[in-house]
Amino acid sequence: MNTTVSLTELAAMELASALASNNGRSAVTVCGGRDAQLRQTVMALRAGEGLSEHSSPGEATLQVLTGSITLRTSDQSWHGKVGDLMPIPAEVHAVDALEDCAFLLTVVKAQ
Length: 111
Fold this sequence. Notes:
InterPro entries: RmlC-like_jellyroll, RmlC_Cupin_sf. This protein is mainly β and about 110 residues long. The chain has a single domain (about 5-110), classed as Jelly Rolls (Sandwich). The chain contains one helix and nine strands. The longest helix is centred in the N-terminal third of the chain and has 14 residues, at about 5-20.
């Protein structure tokens, strides 16, 4: 069954959840899942929060839906604002919320 998802509505709901949570984060998977090859997740972070350094299980992109973020590796960083689509480097990286934000994380697992 094909279901249309409003990323705008999901971003607003997840951001509200992140702002109300103790850790300042919230996420919901909108397509795929842990056992699927493709996974898309709307994630929200309160300003000043982030995702600590980690590796990706495959190719990945991040699309900023609200707010702004910094995507960084040990020696580089990129600023993302609403509408930006950012390829995630195939190395250890982290995400920092410069403002309250929500983004769509798309991951295709390596075979």
